[in-house]
Design a protein that fits this description.
The protein is built from 3 helices and 28 strands. The protein is mainly β and about 575 residues long. The protein is globular. The protein starts with 12 loop residues before the first strand and ends in a 41-residue tail after the last strand.
Length: about 575
């Protein structure tokens, strides 16, 4: 299930840790004139819900060998990047003092594998939760505050067989206290943003590792957290749906920035079956039930004329059936190649989009995730630079693109024969340029690939013979917000992996799009492998695909080379490439 929040409306937005972008000068000037009125009427009283993103660090105690967590642009640490949720209630008194209570949970980022130092064991903290009181002073739309209260968290220790294999895991909850300070400011509508610092001190926990031939370990977390958060005020009676629907927003609306969100819970199960030739990469025959849960925020802000910035942090938790192994077309597109027992935060997208209008006729742009409302020239040049998924701008279509709303199978929302240049969760860094006209458009991109299969480390240079031989592909897509989906389009895409004299490699893609006005049938073409798509809006569609060349190995998303069946060779039952999932790269 996916749910979207309504549009935010003010000239502030955030991306990353503590980054606040101000609106254009005209809006800022208008704000200055209205500030006295806001100061007189704004009231902080009410319940609220929100989310936060930031960065943390600290210590788990001496001799604990903490796992290095991803910091992306910041150094790795015991927490790395953090993100989570909060909920609370404020009551503003007549003397402008604001009293409140807030509960939140902050989750850590995934492992920064290249920074991992081999050790017999490693400790880590999975999340931190707090229940705090807040006391602040309302100065119009600004409210500085102090906060403190009860804290808890979950830590665990991995017992390692070798640097890449975990033999066992032990974990437990720890309690303690927290204190901090911050400042919250009303942004627009019923939304507010905050910048906050918290210190978390959890009680010491001794883990007895004598059963593994190791000494006891004392885990003593001392954590520093810096957060940027956003809250949506529900009002003083959030259970009264009628009052909430008829109530007016606390501040005026604006189209300078927006925020949307989605959450998807996807459970799957299968019964036991006979499996006499099971191996390490086989689907377990004993039967299994697994689930994945993702929550994503989509934040966008208009920086200047034609300039937009988008930031999408995402929490992901859960596992695919069999660890995403043993099925050629895996039936859950939400299942990452590396699952997590507790939610893990990743900044999945952060990119700058600059549109250069060429004049002439304009078109309306609807509000949506990673799309700010307004108007734009139909004849335009668009440049996009940052981190995103290649499928955001290539290989779209109206019925098989989003595993949260369309087909769930990896081979349907992303062609099983198409090798996405991406890290573990399917994102990369690069640039896309597009020249758009009313009847046609051409688009090209340059993207990084991972240094190793199933790796989070992206680079323009990568090694391994499995990367050779992939030269060109072509495919059809429907892009976000271009034209109505019922208007037929023809797109041709060619992808090439190139190497220069220094051995540097990158993915280059070019796409030409034509929009016939009369022909209602759209064809989809790819050079290698070959495919064809008939797309009649969102009502009817068919897909035809041919397998990729068997001599051309895939690097990132290893899909089913073909969907036909053949007899399984008995001498090598432990691994049969045609029956492996996209996550089963050797």
């Amino acid at each position: 299930m996916s749910c979207h929040c309504r549009t935010l409306t003010r000239a502030l937005a955030a991306a990353g840790l503590g980054m606040i972008v101000l609106a254009c000068p005209a809006t800022a000037a208008d704000m200055a004139l209205k500030a006295p009125a806001y100061k007189a009427v704004y009231d902080w009283t009410g319940f609220y819900l929100g989310g936060h993103f930031g960065y943390g660090g600290g210590s788990l105690g001496p001799g604990t060998n903490p796992l290095p967590e991803l910091g992306v642009f910041f150094p790795h640490s015991v927490t790395g990047l953090i993100g989570g949720y909060q909920a609370g209630y404020n009551r503003q008194l007549s003397n402008h003092v604001v009293l409140g209570v807030e509960a939140d949970a902050s989750f850590t980022s995934p492992l920064d594998a290249p920074r991992l130092v081999p050790a017999p064991f490693n400790s880590t903290i999975d999340y931190v939760g707090t229940l705090r009181g807040r006391i602040g002073y309302a100065h119009g739309i600004w409210m500085p505050y102090l906060t403190g209260g009860f804290a808890w968290g979950h830590t665990h220790i991995n017992i390692n067989d070798d640097p890449t294999t975990i033999a066992s895991r032990v974990g437990d909850y720890q309690t303690g206290w927290t204190a901090g300070a911050g400042i919250e400011f009303a942004v627009s509508g019923n939304w507010s943003a905050k910048v906050e610092y918290e210190y978390v001190d959890l009680s010491r926990r001794m883990y007895d590792l004598s059963d593994f031939g190791l000494p006891a370990v004392n885990v003593d977390p001392r954590i520093h957290l810096a957060k940027f958060g956003m809250n949506y005020r529900l009002g003083d009676t959030p259970w009264d749906a009628g009052a909430a629907a008829n109530g007016k927003p606390a501040l005026p609306e604006s189209d300078v920035w927006n925020v949307h969100a989605q959450t998807t819970f996807l459970p799957q199960t299968y019964p036991s079956f006979r499996s006499p030739y099971a191996g390490t990469d086989s689907l377990p025959g004993r039967g299994q039930t697994q689930a994945t849960w993702t929550t994503t925020a989509f934040l966008g802000v208009r920086l200047w004329q034609g300039g937009e910035f988008y930031f999408d942090p995402e929490l992901a938790q859960g596992f695919g059936l069999g660890g995403t192994l043993g099925l050629a077309g895996f039936p859950n597109g939400e299942a990452q190649k590396a699952g997590a027992e507790y939610p893990k935060i990743r900044p999945q997208r952060y990119y700058l989009k600059q549109t250069f209008g060429l004049g002439g006729e304009q078109e309306d742009v609807a509000d949506g995730p990673n799309q700010l409302p307004g108007k734009r020239d139909i004849d335009r040049v668009t440049l996009i630079v940052g981190r995103f998924a290649v499928g955001d701008f290539f290989d779209n279509n109206s019925y098989a693109h989003d595993s949260r709303a369309d087909f769930m199978n990896w081979a349907m929302w992303a062609s099983a024969a198409y090798d996405f240049p991406a890290d573990l969760p399917g994102f990369t860094r690069g640039a896309v340029v597009e020249f758009n006209r009313k009847d046609w458009a051409v688009r090209a991109g340059l993207f990084q690939v991972p240094e190793a299969r199933n790796s989070d480390v992206l680079a323009f240079k990568t090694g391994g013979t499995g990367d050779r031989g992939r030269r060109s592909r072509a495919r059809y897509q429907r892009c976000h917000g271009e034209h109505p989906p019922q208007q037929p389009k023809i797109r041709i895409l060619r992808q090439r992996r190139a190497r220069d004299r220094q051995g540097r490699r990158a993915v280059r893609a070019c796409q030409l799009e034509r929009r016939p006005e009369r022909n209602p049938v759209v064809h989809r073409y790819r050079s290698q492998p070959f495919g064809r798509r008939f797309d009649q809006g969102q009502l009817l569609g068919t897909i035809e695909r041919h397998h990729r060349h068997r001599r051309r190995d895939q690097w990132t998303f290893r899909g089913a080379s073909r969907l036909s069946c053949r007899r399984r060779p008995r001498p090598s039952d432990r691994r049969w490439p045609d029956q492996l999932s996209p996550g089963a790269n050797p």
